[in-house]
Amino acid sequence: MKIGLKILENDTTIQKRALKLIKGALDSAIKRSVSVASTEIKSLVRRAIVSSDEYRELLGGELQAELGVPDSATRLDYILQIWLNSLTVSRKPVRISGSSITGGFSIFMIREDWSDVLGSSAAQYVTIKGKSMPWLEWLLLAGDATIITDYTFSANIPRGFNSRTGGGVMLEAPQRRWSVPRQHAGTAADNFVTRSLYGIGEQIGKIMQREVQKRFK
User: Fold this and answer.
1) Which of 119, 120, 141, 136 is nearest to 58 (CA)?
2) For position 55, what pLDDT does the model report?
3) Among 18, 27, 49, 54, who pairs with 192 as Cys (CB 3.0-4.6 Å)?
4) Per-residue confidence (pLDDT) for residue 12, from 0 to 100
5) Of 71, 70, 77, 72, nearest to 49 (Cα)?
6) pLDDT tens-digit map of 138-192
7) For residue 98, what are the contacts with CB-CB under 8 A and spacing of at least 6?
8) To the nearest whole number, what is the mean pLDDT of the chain?
9) Do 35 and 180 meet the contact criterion of CB atoms below 8 Å apart?
10) What residue spans define the domains of the chain?
């Protein structure tokens, strides 16, 4: 006995139905992945920034001394928390475009002008003479531009001099200038934070892919 089957729908109709089924499953998987992916990405970002040379140097190293940052551990923790609280992972709706499906995640973390942290009290300190020192702005944005003229940094503290950090002081030095040490200098588009994040871009992508794959059925 022979059985004959006849497909009543054309290839285009079948393709549209298949894409619609995939779209629904993918959209659901992404939606259910956002919370977990967000937690994992925040943990990854924290580790990357804390592991940077600049972060470590600000905790008792020469960079802390040159910038004169008091209570650096407390300040850094506060600043890092601002960034992590600002980090949001959201779902980009899945859409069908022709024979393709687009969608996924979008991530927001840092304002382009860095105002989310530069406006905080932790990003600056006040000297005993009442002068505000925007140390974080120098580190993130000033590059190797001259910040203080006729002074130079010394790790050797002369007798009678007070040091906010205990790691060094600024001494008068005519015709000398001080800027953020070149190896740590940063600009809006290239500083220790952006460098830390560039280094984990691939890992972030893998987290998103893994979490979606777990839930895609």
Assistant:
1) 136
2) 97
3) 54
4) 64
5) 77
6) 999 999 999 999 888 888 888 888 888 888 888 888 989 999 999 999 999 999 9
7) none
8) 86
9) no
10) 11-215
Distance, CA of 208 to CA of 40 (rounded, Å): 9
| 148 burial level (CB within 10 Å; 0-12, 13-18, 19+) | middle
pLDDT score of 33: 83
Sign of CA dihedral 66, 172, 137, 82: positive
